[in-house]
Amino acid sequence: MTLLELLGDAAAIAANPIAGLAKVALDVAPDIASLFGDDAEKAVGKLADTVRAITGTDDPTQAREVLADPNLVFQLRSQAQAFAHEERMQQMTGAITTLTATLADRQDARARDSEFIKAGRSNTRANVLLITAGLGIVGGIGFMVFGHVDGNTAVGGCIISVVTLLAGKFATAFDFEFGGSADSEQTREMLARAPPIDR
After folding, report:
1. Terminal-to-terminal C-alpha distance of the chain
2. Which of 11, 48, 58, 179 is deepest in the core (most CB within 10 A)?
3. How far apart are CA 27 and CA 51, in angstroms?
4. Which stretches are transmembrane (predicted)?
């Protein structure tokens, strides 16, 4: 649920005074709603705290009167932007940490495979899993084609889901073997989505 949807619910506002303060913030500065994504609950609390700090009151009616001052509205916008920026940076940090761990795991697995090759052995488990995924993809498609299974039925949808999952595993195996480009692309996309760093 988005921030606007949450604060458009009169019953939720009546039941929660914090939502009332957050609604005041959106009423006096509607543009700040676009700063927040799907984590509306967190944004409501932060906006309410900001309104309370700026106006010095917990009463939405009094807060609205105090925020008739354009300087205080500017201050509200600035703090909302700082909060949204901080949230995006935390999300990016989490995503980068996950990507770094994934790349490290992949590198460790590649190093293990190199050791197998040096010892004159092969990674039988990985080969069996890859062959199984390939057979599953071919089998699923064959079953749908020769069994005349409609993709819009429950059975067809299930087969499509399984084939899609196995195809994803196949793609992961190719990324593992030929790495670099896919990993770099993920990193480039993540950095491109990162908000600019304030100086």
Report:
1. 33
2. 48
3. 12
4. 128-147, 153-171
